[in-house]
Design goal:
The complex is a heterodimer.
Chain A: E1 5-8, H1 11-21, E2 25-32, E3 35-40, E4 51-56, E5 59-64, H2 81-84, E6 88-97, E7 100-105, E8 113-118, H3 120-133, E9 134-135, E10 138-139, H4 141-147, E11 150-155, H5 166-169, E12 181-185, E13 189-194, H6 197-206, E14 209-210, H7 213-228, H8 239-245, H9 251-258, H10 264-268, E15 275-281, E16 287-294, E17 304-305, E18 308-309, H11 314-333, H12 343-346, H13 354-366
Parallel strand pairs in A: 2-8, 8-11, 11-12
Antiparallel strand pairs in A: 1-13, 1-14, 2-3, 4-5, 6-7, 6-16, 9-10, 12-13, 15-16, 17-18
Helix pairs in contact in A: 8-11, 9-11
Chain B: E1 4-9, H1 18-22, H2 25-33, E2 35-38, E3 51-57, H3 63-75, E4 76-82, H4 84-88, H5 100-107, E5 131-133, H6 140-152, H7 163-169, H8 175-179, H9 195-198, H10 215-224, H11 229-236, H12 244-257
Parallel strand pairs in B: 1-2, 1-3, 3-4, 4-5
Helix pairs in contact in B: 11-12
The chains are: A alpha+beta, B alpha/beta.
């Protein structure tokens, strides 16, 4: 990582233009409907600048922000997940050939994607998904193809949403890995750092000067203050053991009385990777597509195996989700499945908050 | 010999059987796979049974139809209901909460010619149904998938989880969370492609209940959004209002009010 550089706000335009010139499709937070989503940006004016998000459990609103602030929105429902782990994709096509058949893998076309404005929690989530899809010899071709040619411009958080708890998950608010460039937005400028050789080359092309000690210090203060001011937290101490021991906690039934089992938390979670594989046949029976679709451990079908459903009640499924996310995920992948982005809290229609659920389970365990 | 396929209409608007004709490209290929021996909306030739697959659209609202559906069942190997009317009683099941006698007198100049039942009921209340395709109207893709499965001798499978899953796959911004819109999506079966939320509208529940909804919590959510009493009842007593879980939920809200 190079030293912090001073980057005037106008240079962001230049950065987008350079990335586009290099053949990247540049994506950043764009206002859409009543939220923001990562969509193509051709210029800074396409970004959701000058607005901020107001988030709480079960509620999301965009509000007028600070004039001149470009990255005022902490996050929207969409993470980077759909770009690498597609919500709906063809895996193979099988064609009938006389009395036999031929199957061919469908590989997504190559493309270069550059993301501008990625938060630390979402970078951490990409690392979690990389571990799932690209581990050892078990590599998911589709994920790998989509993930390959990516340039990441992180933006360090200087403001958290009330639903954020990345500080307690140790994934933010400052991006520490997984980016090519990171920016800290201040009133008049950015402080930029590179996190890769590609990022370093880009900083050189942008022709920036080294940030003064005062500028670098100010950027650090902003992220430190953000971390210190984060209201929500998840106490992760002894967490796998606590959840395993509380498998029969009455809290599961209680939360299930509120849970709609609608799957929204898992759909917006940037690390949830459950999927279903379905065959879609052409009507003449001569061709069949094997399609992978996002699925959820909250769907009744997901726990259905031959002849039996082993998680028939909502309480079974909520427990499965939370225990996997925060406990068995660690056994399985060596990392927590939660990055503290808070999306499952905000986008739950009835506002179920996993930090509260864990706190309640912990409290009842002590008694 | 190609499988003999029939499409029957009961009390309905024809929108669901139209999905066959809307299949366009696939329609010709479908016609190559099956013998459409009875489909009055599509062709004038109508042949008697037996049928390998009978698609049944519409609900039972007359004494004649209550007898006719038994005959259809007897003549058919597989009976598949298509749409909210055949599967749940349809919008016309609103009569189940009203006085049909009064309608007959008020609406028709010669009410003595009208022979009707006091209820609109789904096909499954009259005969055994092999598979139900939900929706108002049904989804063309689902209809073709079910047809293909039956032709292949495979058990048809359609997803029964909530609209939310499909809504999120599409990348829609949730209208409940971001707009405070009442939306039946969390308790409604998927299949429409999350059409209304994609247009920033709440879901109307056209595909009926999802397979594991929590109505108690959902009613509380509606109440938080200011949807209570008659308003809540009306939202639940819509296209699929007579389906048991939604019927009982709406009836309970209506009873509470009184």
């Amino acid at each position: 990582m190079t030293e912090p550089m001073y980057m005037p706000k106008a240079a962001l335009e230049n950065l987008i233009a350079l990335l586009r010139g290099d053949g990247y499709k540049v994506l950043g937070p764009v206002s859409r409907d009543a939220g923001v989503a990562f969509e193509e940006v051709r210029a800074v004016s396409d970004l959701a600048a000058g607005v901020r998000d107001s988030q709480e459990a079960g509620r999301y609103r965009l509000e007028p922000g600070v004039p001149g602030e470009i990255f005022g929105v902490v996050n929207g429902a969409g993470s980077l997940k759909p770009f690498f782990f597609a919500p709906d994709e063809n895996l193979i096509e099988v064609r009938r050939e006389g009395k036999s058949f031929k199957s061919s893998e469908v590989i997504p076309p190559p493309r270069r994607l550059a993301f501008v404005g990625v938060r630390a929690c979402d970078l951490a989530a990409v690392a979690v998904q990389d571990r799932i899809f690209l581990h050892d010899r078990f590599r998911d071709t589709h994920y790998e193809t989509r993930r390959k040619d990516v340039f990441m411009v992180a933006v360090n958080c200087t403001r958290s949403a009330p639903t954020c708890f990345c500080a307690s998950m140790k994934t933010g608010p400052e991006a520490t890995a997984g980016f090519d460039l990171s920016l800290t937005e201040m009133d008049e400028c950015f402080v930029a750092k590179s996190g890769s050789s590609a990022g370093e080359a880009m900083l050189e092309r942008l022709g920036l000067r080294t940030a003064s000690a005062g500028e670098a210090e100010q950027a650090r203060t902003l992220t430190d203050r953000c971390a210190a001011g984060m209201r929500r937290q998840l106490d992760t101490s002894d967490l796998p053991r606590l959840l395993y021991e509380q498998a029969d906690s009455p809290r599961w039934k209680e939360v299930a009385s509120r849970c709609l089992s609608c799957t929204n938390c898992t759909m917006v979670c940037p690390t949830c990777f459950c999927h279903a594989v379905v065959d879609q046949q052409e009507i003449d029976g001569n061709m069949s597509r094997r399609v992978r679709q996002w699925d959820s451990c909250f769907s009744l079908e997901h726990a259905h195996i031959h002849g039996i459903n082993f998680r028939p009640r909502i309480e079974d499924r909520y427990r499965q989700w939370l225990t996997h996310k925060l406990a068995s995920w660690i056994d399985q992948f060596g990392t927590s499945g939660c990055v503290g982005c808070g999306r499952c809290i905000t986008w739950c229609p009835v506002g179920i908050d996993l930090t509260q659920e864990v706190a309640a389970i912990r409290a009842s365990a002590i008694k | 010999m190609k499988p003999r396929v029939a499409v029957f209409k009961f009390a309905s608007c024809d929108g669901c059987q139209l999905q066959f004709l809307n299949a366009e490209d696939e329609l010709l290929r479908l016609a190559g796979q099956v013998d459409l021996v009875y489909f009055p909306e599509a062709r004038s030739r109508s042949l008697p049974g037996p049928y390998d697959i009978a698609f049944v659209e519409g609900s039972i609202t007359t004494p004649d139809d209550a007898r006719r559906i038994i005959r259809v069942r007897e003549e058919s190997r597989y009976l598949v209901t298509i749409g909210a009317c055949a599967t749940a009683g349809g919008i016309q099941a609103l009569r189940n909460w009203a006085d049909v006698e009064q309608y007959r007198r008020v609406v028709y100049p010669s009410p003595e010619f009208i022979s009707t039942l006091s209820t609109s009921t789904p096909i499954s209340e009259h005969v055994r149904v092999d598979f139900e395709v939900w929706g108002c109207p049904i989804d063309k893709g689902q209809l073709l998938a079910v047809t293909r499965s039956l032709l292949s001798g495979a058990k048809p499978v359609l997803p029964a989880y909530s609209v939310c899953m499909e809504c999120k796959r599409r990348g829609n911004v949730c209208v409940v969370v971001a707009r405070g819109e009442p939306c039946l999506g969390p308790v409604t079966r998927t299949g429409c492609g999350a059409l209304c939320p994609a247009l920033n509208r709440g879901c109307y529940g056209c595909f009926g209940p999802a397979n594991d909804e929590n109505m108690e919590s959902f009613v509380k959510l509606l109440a938080q959004q200011g949807v209570t009493g008659d308003d809540a009842v009306r939202r639940l007593r819509g296209i699929n209002g007579y389906v048991r879980l939604w019927r009982e939920t709406a009836d309970a809200i209506a009873a509470q009010k009184k």
